Amino acid sequence: xxxxxxxxxxxxxxxxxxxxxxxxxxxxxxxxxxxxxxxxxxxxxxxxxxxxxxxxxxxxxxxxxxxxxxxxxxxxxxxxxxxxxxxxxxxxxxxxxxxxxxxxxxxxxxxxxxxxxxxxxxxxxxxxxxxxxxxxxxxxxxxxxxxxxxxxxxxxxxxxxxxxxxxxxxxxxxxxxxxxxxxxxxxxxxxxxxxxxxxxxxxxxxxxxxxxxxxxxxxxxxxxxxxxxxxxxxxxxxxxxxxxxxxxxxxxxxxxxxxxxxxxxxxxxxxxxxxxxxxxxxxxxxxxxxxxxxxxxxxxxxxxxxxxxxxxxxxxxxxxxxxxxxxxxxxxxxxxxxxxxxxxxxxxxxxxxxxxxxxxxxxxxxxxxxxxxxxxxxxxxxxxxxxxxxxxxxxxxxxxxxxxxxxxxxxxxxxxxxxxxxxxxxxxxxxxxxxxxxxxxxxxxxxxxxxxxxxxxxxxxxxxxxxxxxxxxxxxxxxxxxxxxxxxxxxxxxxxxxxxxxxxxxxxxxxxxxxxxxxxxxxxxxxxxxxxxxxxxxxxxxxxxxxxxxxxxxxxxxxxxx
Length: 562
Hints:
- By secondary structure, this protein is α/β, with parallel strands linked by helices.
- Helix content is 60%, strand content 10%.
- It contains 18 helices and ten strands.
- The strands form two sheets. It has a six-stranded mixed beta sheet with strand order 6-7-8-3-9-10, sandwiched between helices. A four-stranded antiparallel beta sheet has the order 2-1-4-5.
- Helix 5 runs antiparallel to helix 6, helix 6 runs antiparallel to helix 9 and helix 7 runs antiparallel to helix 9.
- The longest helix is centred in the middle third of the chain and has 48 residues.
């Protein structure tokens, strides 16, 4: 069990980096500000007691001290708000970037799981936690410091009153474990229920076309309504528990005030000091009561932190070889040797071999389920093989394992265009252009792909390319890869969504791209433009069912010269 799972809130501190110093600085600001507020309250009470009992104005030094504290409190409040809000945004960014970094190596998983939960964790749970680290921690520490100073001051002035206040503090703090187990359970239920609601909404938004196209509004609305109702019921039970405990805390604070008043009766305490002593006792207990209320909400925060920690602990789909190696210079080839890969208990590739020379264009064909998309994912290093190696090669047949190449260098050298790849919202320019790409280059490529007149560099494509047809999206995905000028281009069914005329334009374009190419396709015209075609068939189960080894993939290398 890791620190993140055993102590989720403290376990995440390691992901906050230098923000831990900012958290400590915010704690100091809030603690000093809290003590300052208590001092102002006590001094005002002393001034009022002096004026009412003695019927004379308080001394000038009291007013001067009070004015100075008010100014100091204003400055501290401004500094605290400025620092804590800035810290909150930085904490939020840190947590989300940590999640993004983990998702970059852990997604997509072999199970191709739905990522709705990952998205809701990155958006919802991190927002809960940024408030905790930026505000709540400082509040808890400040309450403890304030209580300690208040008790010391009361003990110096009137020990009996310090004992009364300490008893009140004990009563307030007793409410924290009082409903602890129930709060832990309900807090976890609320986080899971609201997370499930977010998951469902993300799923629906991602598949909105299917919802509309198949007319399944009713079932979807019912699922969301039922999930939302479950979240509301859990939140209602949690809030009811919080209110009961809040009533107990308020009763404890009231008892402190009454106890101090009773404590001064019959004792040698000046009448003008009674108000100040009562306020001092209340100022000692009240912040602790607020902190206890905050502690009562920690179970929900721990549940959120546990979700974030679980996401951060996702096993990497990719591992980096050491030492890190640079890709070879010049044209690159691709070598897959004895590659084996499977999903759970289903073996897809076993002993698969494929060698693509630098500058060569190779087609890959096979029946559905034969493993073509798996080869694309492994060749593009979206996954690592279970066995065997995938390597980059140069013209002299020197090889560098793809798993040893730094990811930035690898992505600059190699591009993958998946059949269902995503396009991000924005303009065509934002969706496809590399940093150095000009509008003229984009327009030229759009024309060669038959998109001139229908889209321009400034055209808005909508969320995920919603404003475009399937064929337009496919061609823009190809344009994005070409404009980044990779040395190896891997394409999964680049002409599957196109009519014959558009497919011919894509095929003609591919013939002019100065990159090594692996193209998965069922179209004879597309495959016919390749230098050679490789046939892939799924591995057959071995005769011995107890033998995990499967039959090898057979690659029929039918060379075809242009």
